[in-house]
Amino acid sequence: MTPPPTAAAASIETRASWIAATAALVVMSVAFGAPYVAVTALKDIAGDLGGSRTVPALCYSFAWLGTAVGGVAFGGIAERFGLRPTAIFGGVMIAAGLALASRGGLWDLYLGHGLLIGVLGLGAINAPVYVYVSRWFDKRRGSALALISSGSYVAGALWPPLLAPLIARAGWQDTMLAFAVIEIVLVLLTAWFFFDPPPAAAPHPLAQAGAPARAAGRVLGLNANLVLLLLASASFLCCVTMAMPQSHLIAFCTDLGITPERGAAMLSVLLGTAFVSRQIWGWISDRIGGLNTVLASSACQAAAIAALLFTQDETGLFTVSAFFGFGFAGLIPAYVLAIRELFPASEAAWRVPMMMLMSGSGMATGGWLAGALYDRFGSYVAAFAAGLAANLLNLVIVGFLAARARPQRRGYFSSATRREISTTL
User: Which has the closest alpha carbon to 97: 111, 81, 83?
Assistant: First the structure.
């Protein structure tokens, strides 16, 4: 079925749509910078707390886990009160979390990152921003979501090189306080001036068409909830691997005699490459589908984490970092796309957050696991090997689902279904 000619003329996209998306990217880029203070100062914090790297690694993990958990609750809150007050509240909580963590105690660090920065801070910003921006777009929604989903990469590329010299001069605690001020100023002002209510969209002509044709409760010939469980488990496993270099690369470099500043630059290259390549992966996923994109992106990530096991020199690590950034960048948007391709649009509101809860939990687990394995074995070899094993298991799961989707791809995704997927979220 082809939508009526008026469907194209009813687009809600305007210049204001891209202003809203750009403002969202700014907020995400600043908000997600908060956990990177602990990442950049990992060895300094560990040194002040007895030498264990598990503690600062858990700060990063708790922030990600809190973000995943808090997003489930704040989605409804933002729906009721709007994104502007919700994001302002989140910015204040992130600043409060940094202030609490700067006190330097074990529980100050844990509560500051897990509860304030994670659940109440990033949880109030991350998931609500995705929903908010999606309502400004109906034609290029995928491009807009790919843009704002790169906010955490911008944060990782931008802040560590700026934070490392500040930590060296002023210490990590004063640096946390300074970044709390940055959070207050940039997040609050951006949210206040640019997060206007989104336009009301008319119901899409295909909204009542439902999901792709399939037996009731079945997807790819399997129970629908089983497919979601497999996808969510795969996202957990790949994010375990994804988190390890992001949270430990600077410390890994200093173990090899590379300066923290060079390590921070390496992390910046990793996440800067991820930002650019995420846009490329978005273009690819529009052509080969979500599952195949996950499979390709995950294979690149597996190759990169394997390369970290054998790379010791600075030039080689810069190269591997860039390749790792290219590899993992396509994963999360492709998982969301796969869910949209496989399930009815009416189910996206709960299936996508559940997948993101698992992926966020994987990020939390990976950051903690790398620190725990380092403390146990005295090097990152075991950690990167565990990350590779998790990534290979991810490839098995996604490969299984992609193989089941391939024979029916032509009939399964009709042209009408593809239009419905691209215009409703």
Answer: 111
Q: What are the pLDDT tens digits along the chain (425 aa)?
A: 444 444 444 677 788 888 999 999 999 999 999 998 988 888 888 888 776 777 777 887 789 889 888 888 887 788 788 899 999 999 999 999 999 999 988 889 999 999 999 999 999 998 888 778 877 877 776 677 778 888 887 887 788 888 888 998 989 899 999 999 999 999 999 999 999 988 865 443 333 333 344 555 788 889 989 999 999 999 999 999 998 888 788 888 888 888 888 888 888 888 888 888 888 887 787 778 889 999 999 999 999 999 988 888 888 889 988 999 898 888 887 887 787 778 876 676 677 778 878 888 888 888 888 888 988 888 888 999 999 999 999 999 999 999 988 765 444 444 334 444 444 44
Specify the pTM.
0.72
402 is written with which tokens?
């992609």
Burial of 22 (0-12, 13-18, 19+ CB in 10 A): middle
> Largest alpha-carbon pair distance within the chain?
68
- Residue carrying structure tokens 């109906």: 138
The tally of CA atoms less than 13 A away on the side-chain side of residue 90 is 38
Q: Is 259 left (phi over 0), alpha (psi -120 to 50) or beta?
A: beta
- The CA–CA distances, whole Å, from 283 to 99, 369, 372, 416 equal 40, 33, 38, 20
CATH entry 3.40.980.10 includes domain 17-198: no
CATH topology (fold) of 209-425: Growth Hormone; Chain: A; (1.20.1250)
d(Cα 127, Cα 110) in Å, to the nearest integer?
A: 22
CB atoms within 10 A of CB 176: 26
Q: 352: how many CB neighbours lie within 10 A of its CB?
A: 19
Domain coordinates in residue numbering, the chain: 17-198, 209-425
List Cβ neighbours of 169 (8 Å cut-off, separation of 6 or more). none
Bridge partners, 219 (sequence order): 222
